Amino acid sequence: MSNQEKQQFTRRSVMKMGAAGLLGVLGGSFLNPTALFGKSAAAHMEDHSKHAVKDKLHAGMAHGYDPGTESTPGLEAAVKALTSFDYGVVSTREDGKTVREYQITASETDVEIAKGITFPGWTFNGTIPGPTLRCTEGDILRIRFGNISSHPHSIHFHGIHNTKMDGIEPIASGSEFIYEFEAKPAGMQLYHCHVPPLARHIHKGLYGNFIIDPKKPRKPAKEFSMVMQGFDLDLDGENEVYAVNGYAFAYQSRPIKVKAGELIRIYLSNFTEFDLINSFHLHANFFHYYATGADPEARPQYTDTIMQCQGERGIVEVVFPEAGRYMFHAHQSEFTELGWMGFFEAE
Question: What letters, b where the CB count within 10 A reaches 16 and e where it falls short, cover 25-38?
Fold first, then answer.
């Protein structure tokens, strides 16, 4: 391993220790910085030491932990991701079809995932998750993909399209490719890199939501986009931080403001690597859940908790009956304590 790589992991270990201190983890003797120099070192870490790290993190990020409200680049990016929908550059073909053009660039970007913790990400357009792409069923999509990173990447879109546009062929570093296809079927879709090793390319951040609206519009609602994920900071194949839209405790620091009695629609997906499932649980209320969301007329599930495997997605529709702070989080306690928790603030 090069000196530069060792320095990078050393900086990461320092950031992790700093963040742990921020989160109430005092001391630091439980962290062995040499274990962060590479996967081989982590693999030889004694089991009790690894458990001690996680136990200390749990202690620092336990239920009731207050992450504060200070503005940071990562927090602002997570807040922006909630309501940013990229509709592309729109034009009309001679046959009357709507054409939407998007520009997506893969690059290596350091991304703040919690105050004091920077993750060396592989990103689409510089963020984790990538931009939320949005269109209407039947639109012609033209995605200009540029790879300026040092690794081959691709974009695989979930949906129905020609196999030549399926995104399983790597696009070399410094190269470009244009994906073009008709958007179908309507519903909550997603996209991600499909270059092996898949676990690494997805975990590093190459994914995003892809919404295909039905031709018959859904009922008016205040809409949000959410992507669930985890981050493995020491390369041991286990996540130390969990988040929605790339930043731990984002919506505890900055609760999502809604109006009581207003229909809320959440486009929800799971890209967590190294864990079999993730989940979404809402306190003090129930919601309607449309798996994949392809049919607005389908009978939804009525519940307060749903779970998703990686790549699974759906649409949550909820009305908050009265003013108050409604907690939401993963219903795996570990995920909650390590960053996957927030509030809706109904007024």
Answer: beeeebbbbebbbe
